[in-house]
Amino acid sequence: MKRAEQLEKTRQAILKNATKLFLQKGFGETSTRDIAKQIGITQPALYHHFSDKEVLYLDVMTNLCGKVRQDINKVMRKHDLSPNEQLWQITKALKKHHPLSIYDQYNQAMRLLSKSAQQKLNMIFTMDYLEPIAAFFRQPDVGLRPDILPKEAAELFIAGLTPIFGTSQLIGGHSITPEQRDQLILDCIINGLSNWGGKN
Predict the structure, then answer these.
(1) Single pTM value for the model
(2) Does residue 78 contact residue 86 with C-beta atoms inside 8 Å?
């Protein structure tokens, strides 16, 4: 194998394992030593490909978040789905890529990254998560309340999904499937917890 091919193969292995570890443990709990060890290289060899952990993290997030955006856009092109069905498909797309709470991981990384890396992550998050989900809320059939902007709704939606990634309570009890539990949580996010029917 040519050196250039070997270098590219190593780079892709680093990205693959870094993605897995960052998503499982978060930015703060993942070290470049852990990533290098996973693929059997030294930490200095990893730094040959990525100058530091932040650069690697931003590369991982650029790649991952681009896939998330593609999945959300695919859902948005399904015009035969009702708004509820679209939102459920968007939720499934987010959960497919994230084993832990998106919002919690984003906030943890924002606390730990340098200012320039924070700006880059915020741009990625806005472009690949907030904007496509805001596009969902802009649809007339959604009926977004007038005092909330679509981008604000997108952020509230992502933050509200946190229980889908795990809670201390078994929401819905033992008699429902994990998918039914996720649908119940999504219904609570969108329609609220009470049965008031609009009464004040």
Answers:
(1) 0.87
(2) yes
pLDDT tens per residue, range 118-167: 999 999 999 999 999 999 999 999 999 999 999 999 999 999 998 888 76
Tell me how far apart the alpha carbons of residues 76 and 72 are, in angstroms, rounded to a whole number.
6
Distance CA(99)–CA(63), nearest Å, equals 16
Tell me which long-range contacts 8-15 makes (C-beta under 8 A, separation of at least 24).
10/39, 10/41, 10/45, 10/49, 11/49, 13/39, 14/39, 14/41, 14/46, 14/49, 14/50, 14/56, 15/56, 15/59, 15/60, 15/63
Task: Give domain 1-50's CATH number out of 3.40.50.150, 1.10.3720.10, 2.60.40.10, 1.10.10.60.
Answer: 1.10.10.60
Give the domain ranges of the chain.
Answer: 1-50, 52-191
Rg of the chain's alpha carbons, rounded to an integer? 19
Q: Are 17 and 38 in contact (CB under 8 A)?
A: yes
What type of residue sits at position 2? K
